[in-house]
Amino acid sequence: MAYKNKFIHLHVHTEYSLLDGANRITDLLDRTKELGMDSIAITDHGSMFGVIEFYKEANKRGIKPILGSEVYVAINKYTEKEPKDKNQYHLVLLAENNTGYLNLMKIVSEGYINGFYYKPRVDHDILAKYSEGIIALSACLGGEVQKHLLNRNYKKAKEIALKYNEIFGENNFFLEIQDHGIEEQRQVNDLLIKMSNETGIPLVATNDVHYLKKEDALVHDVLLCIQTGATIYEPDRMKFPTNEFYLKSYDEMKSIFGDVEEALENTVKISERCNVEIDFGTLHLPEYRVPEGYTNVEYLKELCIDGLQKRYKTITSEIKDRFNFEFNTIVQMGYVDYFLIVWDFIKFAKDNGIMVGPGRGSAAGSIVSYALGIIDIDPLEYDLLFERFLNPERVSMPDIDIDFCYERREEVIDYVVKKYGENRVAQIATFGTMAARGAIRDVGRAINMSYGEVDYIAKQIPMELGITISKALDMNKTLRELYQSKEEVKNLIDLALAVEGLPRHTSTHAAGVLISKEPVTTYVPLARNKDAIITQFNMIELEELGLLKMDFLGLRTLTVIRDAINLIEKNHGIKIDFSNFDYEDPEVLEMFAKGETLGIFQFESAGMRQFIKELKPNMFENLIAANSLFRPGPMDQIPQYIENKNNPDNIEYLHPKLKPIL
Question: Model pTM?
């Protein structure tokens, strides 16, 4: 392989270096391709939030992804959290192979779980414990070696460099040289070259990439102001000293480091060595331990048959055929343990008097779920399709959303944690992004524009689902005219467009819980969101990795129903049992027809109440249709549905064969 006339970026911050990296992953990779580079690294601050997206998008473009992180190294022991421990060093870690990727996840997780103090920190002991398969670079001026050089302590800097060389092994630790036009870097580079000659530790050249092109420096500056609550006019704010922190071409890097050719060539050698393959094709479902004498398949079958007899009393051939089809599909697709796990924690909830919802979504189409008590809706009565829930033709994880009493949902999660182990259960990350109005307000504060003017412009963005600034400019004439006629408004909106949609912070998914076969850090790095330990990958990425995600939804309505049932029994001596209810009660349907539904889940909004008053429901299925229609998309068909329901003689069919279906 020729190493000359090539350069690979190994120190790169994406949008997931939150409010510091201004590189959108897709734009970054497109630019990498434009520059003729066939590989690039991701090294976000202390985290691996963007790794899966980066890996997939890079492979789509024929670019080799190098997976890494710029971790924070504690000045003292990483578990010490005193004011003296507030500062930390930087160190770039790159996964050379799958062992390195696994170790990188463990290092990054350890930083968040046990080392978080201002930043997620690790120390030399943690690095040594998980050093196999990792290539380390000494990072920027914030690196430990560089800090000692800046403090004019060459001896200590050399000692630390040799320590890292010992931790990671020969040719796995590199002294990193950078030049962004900063005088201190040039001084440090001379000393790093001298150190390399004395120790044999190789050099590597990088650019500390925080934004895409030179002209994006202002966008990055605004992003830093949003992070720190400063304005671009404050002289003492956190600010990058030059506008050189962008994705440079080979020629630009050669012009800077042409006299240290091996430092450029080493970027290509490192790139060649880094080969991580992420497995998206294997399920990693936790194993449910069944009683002795059973296989998991036998135990699930017995539970189902018992459940069917309780639910139906008489098992008809229709019930038997439907069950056999579903059960065989579940076994064939490898989801036996999935159903046992869900059955188990729902059983725990019901056995302990925790209200559980009757079921929602496509899971209501499964007779196995009905037999197991996971749902309380008979799929045969409502002619519901199992294939919408689980389909051998569409290999995707079954998804059962379960509602629990709002006050006692945590008890169910605690049960799952105890049963499967604390290190095998985690909550799931979501990312708060800068939406259209928020981006305008954030940028307005950063550029010190008057509150009144920013507020007026932000309010020109329509309050619509999925609205963007670009759409608002097309839709709103006033906003468009302000943008075209006022320079300061154009500047505000252009900057807001540049940051719109970037992740702003992490938070915890309201309901999602991950349960894994092995410790979670075998598959995914962990982070901390206040007291919650969360995955660094989002729920879609977790599913793609074959991991089990459950939605434990806390529903206040169930808590209200529980209290109402208890009060009815206490005050009137009547025990309510929903399994014996008649859902065609004309008095109840009349209340719906009058719109008297305040406090009824999904039927209490003004729009819904107006809809059902016009609909005049006179059977339970009308309420099912109303609930299905009252959402974006099908909502457009509401007038036609009301017209046809109230005037059935006027219904026209495209073809007579559609009549029994519709």
Answer: 0.89
